[in-house]
Amino acid sequence: QRQMCIRDRYMTVNRPGAASQIGTRHAINNNTLLITSFVQVFVANSDMQEDMRKLIDNELEIVAAVGVMPSVLICNKDLNIKTIDDLKNYPKILNFGTNGPTSSSHLTTEVLFRTINKKHNYVFYPSGQAKISNDLIGGHLDCAFGLLSGMSAALQSPKVHAVISSHKVDTNTPSWEEVLKTKFPFNNVMGLTVSRNMSAADKNKIKSDLAAALAKPEAKTKIENAGFLFYPRLSSSEIANEIKHIGEIKKYFAN
Fold first, then answer.
1. What is the reported pTM?
2. pLDDT tens column, 105-137
């Protein structure tokens, strides 16, 4: 779904691992289009990994945004945690699964802990959200505030309960804004990032191809079916706003 309608011109090279650090380094060192979370790369990896900071800040450039990746808080049903108030008042320390200390799921979980003013345990799963989902269903993990796109399998199980989502995703799960009367502190935007050394002609070609793909009727459906919110941003002013938002996210976590 990430290639959408431009697959005839671009080849996918999957470089998973280390919370996008492997893919990021690949983009920095080559004329490669990196499709990933801006929060993951420019906030988590840049601020938490000293050796990555200079490379990311000086060598990478955002060229377009495609979608927002909403997160959903899921808990094992046996805990009987149905609302944020239930979580706030839960008498025991719980185990929360995330993809790692530099992952976007770690940041969303940290937002949750700050909001309820209570710390729980982090359990890191470098192997990804599939293992988190399995452990939630199996009762080996209490909760996880992970990406909807990666938690969809767990949500099909009667053994877990969706408590809240960062953004409105369906009629059954209350959103952060509906429950807490304030917007979630950041949009976890998925978009396209390239090396600053890439030629202007190549950058313009990428944006042109993407704009044409996103204009097709099926683009929105494909992106939403993948668990994202359709969020096309291609103009210079829109990209400038996304860069500004990244700065605001950094300030939030610096406090």
1. 0.84
2. 888 999 999 999 999 999 998 877 889 999 999
Alpha-carbon gap, residue 122 to 135, rounded angstroms = 14
In this predicted structure, what is the pLDDT of residue 1?
A: 40
- Report which DSSP code applies to 243: H
Handedness of CA 81, 86, 90, 94 (dihedral sign): positive
Q: How far is CA 227 from CA 47, 218, 221, 253, in A?
A: 27, 15, 10, 26
Who's near 86: CB < 8 A, 6+ residues apart? 80, 163
Amino acid letter, residue 64: A
Place of tokens 């793909």: 213
Strands (E) located in the chain? 34-37, 60-68, 71-76, 95-98, 121-124, 143-147, 160-165, 189-195, 229-233
3-state secondary structure of 59: helix
Query: Can you tell me the distance from the alpha carbon of 213 to that of 216, in angstroms, rounded to the nearest whole number?
Result: 6
